[in-house]
Known about the structure:
The protein is an alpha/beta fold. The chain folds into two domains: about 5-175, Phosphoglycerate kinase, N-terminal domain (Rossmann fold, 3-Layer(aba) Sandwich), CATH 3.40.50; about 185-365, Phosphoglycerate kinase, N-terminal domain (Rossmann fold, 3-Layer(aba) Sandwich), CATH 3.40.50. It has 13 helices and 17 strands. The chain has helices at about 35-50, 75-85, 100-105, 130-135, 170-185, 205-210, 220-230, 245-255, 295-305, 330-345, 355-360, 375-385, 390, and strands at about 15-20, 30, 30-35, 55-60, 90-95, 115, 140-145, 170, 190-195, 215-220, 260, 265-270, 280, 290-295, 310-315, 345-350, 370. The strands form four sheets. A six-stranded parallel β-sheet has the order 5-6-4-1-7-8, sandwiched between helices. A six-stranded parallel β-sheet has the order 11-10-9-15-16-17, sandwiched between helices. Helix 9 runs parallel beside helix 10. The protein is elongated and about 70 Å long.
Amino acid sequence: MIRTLRDLPADALAGRRALVRVDFNVPLAGSEVADATRIEASLPTLRWLLEHECRPVLLSHLGRPGGEPNPVFSLEPVASVLSELLQAEVRFVDPCDGEEARLASHELPMGSVLLLQNTRFLAGETANDPGLAERFGALGDFYVSDAFGTLHRAHASTAGVTKFIEPCVMGLLVERELEALSTLKDPPRPFVVGFGGAKISDKIDLMNAFLGAADCMLVGGAMANTFLRAQGFSTGRSLVEEEALDLASSILDRAGDRVRLPIDLVVTTDIGDPASRVWTVGVDAIPDDAAAVDIGPETQARYAEEMEGCGAFFWNGPMGLFEDERFAQGTFALARAAAKATDRGTFTVIGGGDSAAAVRAAGLMDAVSHVSTGGGAALEFLSSGQLPGIEALRSESPEPPK
Length: 402
């Protein structure tokens, strides 16, 4: 069984050190947190622990420092943001696995939180080194897995640590993620899926998993160019995954008319030049010197119509280069369609990554049913049904913290 916080006996928690793996892999602007969304997502679990008089000790990574200390990727700026959000003292200790960290965990007063330095400052983290995992285990009396976006990787702080601390449970964020994504295993009908982004090959496992389940697939982004080329259309200078053309043809053959491709596209002759011309063409009229950068207005309307009356909707990948406002309308249109569908009763799930960023940029985070905090983890769970970090939590019974 996989246990949750609520499986732990409440009368055995007071004063116990809760070692919590959170996902504070947030964007930084210099020494400031540029987006606190992932920090905010951890608050329900941290508040639950504080309300039950536990002493939270937090582990997280940030960026890719390559297994050695790098001040650019320090978690120290997160401490003040977390303190403000929690309205509680947050202590910070560097490094995350030494004697100083262990002593700080024991000395942490009730009502306070201890945030430790970036786990990826240590080479053993991504290698799932048993020695490091054991040192992590000494930092708590029980373990809480609440970093959903990391659970598709078996690292020392997400999987290895569970061999050296007991009990190990899911946090509220992970529990919420799995509940939402599990609904898509047998979704309300009709079930509509939106796929975007650059590469078919990045999402082939999930596309295959959904081929038998989805009633309709809406395709955009650069992957739509690959499908269009596979159908024989000229795509000009558009980004096309040449090595995936046979794969695209195979998907089209198996899915038939359930795959919806753009009927018009926004194109430009120079993506990097803000002054370059931007216009809309039919998919059969892409100029040789132009590249497709977004779905066009007719496609936007068609995709929104497909979503009317659907029972469930899952979306992963933007419809265009939405980071540039000139090419963002298709992605934002799909986000608005998802919000309207939610309002009509559709169960809507945004699969993390750029899709979540787009929904956030559109101001619609609270207008859909669920926005996943982990794109890669969400795709892995939906395609395979398993995550290494979740499998590591399996146990026979919920023993109380020792």
